[in-house]
Amino acid sequence: MLPTSSNFKKYHAILSQSPLFHGCDRQFLHDRMVHLEPIEHPRGAVVLDAQQTTTTFFIVVEGRVKLVSRAEANEREITLFLLGPGEAFDVVSLLDKQAHNLTAEALDDVTLLSASADQVRNWISHHPEFNRTFLPYLGRKMSLLSELASDLTLHDTGIRLARLILRHVDPSSSKHEVNLINNLSHEELANMIGTVRVVANRQIQNLKRRGIIDARRGHLVVNDLDALVKQCDFTVPKPGSEDGTFES
After folding, report:
1. Residue 186 confidence (pLDDT)
2. Which phi and psi angles does 215 have, rounded to 5°?
3. Distances (CA, A) of 56 to 21, 112, 121, 122, 205
4. Residue 84: CB partners within 8 Å, gap ≥ 6?
5. Which of 4, 79, 200, 235 makes an SS bond possible with 192, Cβ 3.0 to 4.6 Å?
């Protein structure tokens, strides 16, 4: 992307707040952006398939993308990650250079910044400044996968739904507003907790009846944060936390 392009400053501002680049020198980020190219996709489009995970690296700058693992035998799927502006994929393939059973799909009209995986591997190999942000970001993603595996193995769907909502509560919002997942369909929410739509809907209605959440089309708010926390073993992120630390 040329520094003279119309959206260069806009995307620079987004990436400067991204966990992947936050804290990096302004000029360092400027120089990396020269290697990024904007790509737009409509809602519902497949923006990355399994084979592309070894060759292409993407950063979301507008809209949301879900990373899905799908079983061809029965067409069941689970959403591994839901990514918003500033988030990147596929970070693991940068290190192991292996194709992953992973598909990235646009939940909204999205704009991505793309680079070759080899180019980003060069950043990792030759720029310690990038590693200071990339490695904690990678660690956080691995931690989230571990949490997902634990949830699916150890907890029932009610607890898994509660933990999903809590992960997306805005810690800086006094009204406990929910980010990223607040307007997803019940089917999409079900895919994020490893169940089916009818079960997810039943659990959502249960939380509504108890006054814990207010869930309407395109709107999800936590009314009783303490009650939601008590339903599962979870701690809420500190307001302003950028490194994945949590209150005890």
Report:
1. 92
2. -125, 115
3. 18, 12, 11, 13, 41
4. 60, 63, 64, 179, 180
5. 79
Closest C-alpha among 217, 248, 230, 245 to residue 162: 230
DSSP 234: -
Peptide bond before 90: cis, by omega within 30 degrees of 0?
yes
First and final C-alpha spacing in the chain: 43
More confident residue, 220 or 59: 59
**pLDDT, position 70:** 86
Q: Structural domains in the chain?
A: 6-142 (2.60.120.10), 155-231 (1.10.10.10)
What pLDDT shows up at residue 242? 46
Say yes or no to pLDDT of 234 above 70. no
Mean pLDDT across the chain, nearest whole number?
89
Question: What are the E-state strand segments in the chain?
Answer: 37-41, 46-48, 56-62, 65-70, 77-83, 88-89, 103-106, 110-116, 213-216, 219-222
DSSP state of 36: -
